[in-house]
Amino acid sequence: MDFDLTGENSDYMFYSLLYCSVTIVFATAVLTKFLTNEIRFGFRSFLSLVTLFLGEPLCQFLVKGPHGVGTFALACMLVYWILPASRLPAKDKVVLITGCDSGFGFAIAQKLDSIGMKVLAGCLDQCGKGATQLKSSCSERLVVLKLDVTNHRDIENAKSYAQELLGEDGLWGLVNNAGISYFAETEMTSEEIFQKTINVNLFGTIRLTKAFLPLIRKSKGRIINMASFVARIPINGTSAYSVSKSAIVAFSDILRLEMKKWDVHVSIIEPLGFQTNNFNEQVLESRLQEIWDSLDEECQLVYGKRYLEDLYKSYKELLPKIPTDLSPVVQAVSGALLSKNPRERYPCSQGADILTSIYSILPIRLADKISKLVSVIPKNSRPVALEPSSHLVP
């Protein structure tokens, strides 16, 4: 079959290709803004859809020819121009980050320094390996502060330093990232382990937030709290950690409502499955022994050390599969700090946003089955008292 590619047919195909190119460029640009939360559903996003779906056919069939393509391209440019700017300028904005010795905090500090922000990097050990690497790899703008989030003197010293640095200006951002994790079921987690986890993860976040809120309010800035996927979907063996992170979500939700009158934005970061210092083999071994040593004799007899070891063995086997690329979390924090319209929540894992949304509307029995599916406790592992040969009373 022969096709006539001359005359009107040739012109029609040529202009159709031009319209298609303009449409793809415009749609991609608008979609990027939407996915990065720079625009939300409203008049301007509606105008983008109208331009996309009605502008092309109207220009193609009413204006026609090169004038039609030019009119459509101009309309797309004008609509895109009135959309919100992508980001606020980063230069000279001051941000305090906790837990910068390693992991998320370390990576976030490096990234924010690289885009021109003034970073106050809180480290547990001011002279440690992480702090030293930060100083050598970042600009002179970055300042390492000794900051243990459980130590009131460290917090007051950090606040005094920030006040002296800022003068009459406010602090733009506070990233509450410092945290620890212990993995064990509730009965195998001593009260001391619960207190230690909650003291760092929850009360550390509250202490820093209350200390620096006056400086944040002054700049109408941002507070970013590091929560977790397990705060929304319970997973066996994460009892103390889940409790602390769930409390951070509740604290952040209340704080977000309270801060609206001050034009302060509060965001939650929800990572899932990233390899940080909490997930290296040496730390896991140390935490396992600490948990076992904290148990009373009865609990040790009922559960047995092998049951706890099976849990930690599962985590160790996961290590090679857990991504070491922390950029999704780093980008989320950057967006929460610099987006004109930051999100309330930033799920950081492929499919996490969809899964948590579905989970929240499921019947509890079905939701529990999903939690069981994502559990890391081996299916064939059971406490000693539940073994068929055991004479212990569960």
TrEMBL record:
<dbReference type="Pfam" id="PF00106">
    <property type="entry name" value="adh_short"/>
</dbReference>
<dbReference type="InterPro" id="IPR020904">
    <property type="entry name" value="Sc_DH/Rdtase_CS"/>
</dbReference>
<dbReference type="InterPro" id="IPR036291">
    <property type="entry name" value="NAD(P)-bd_dom_sf"/>
</dbReference>
<dbReference type="InterPro" id="IPR002347">
    <property type="entry name" value="SDR_fam"/>
</dbReference>
<protein>
    <submittedName>
        <fullName>Retinol dehydrogenase 7</fullName>
    </submittedName>
</protein>
<dbReference type="GO" id="GO:0016491">
    <property type="term" value="F:oxidoreductase activity"/>
</dbReference>
<comment type="similarity">
    <text>Belongs to the short-chain dehydrogenases/reductases (SDR) family.</text>
</comment>
<dbReference type="GO" id="GO:0008202">
    <property type="term" value="P:steroid metabolic process"/>
</dbReference>
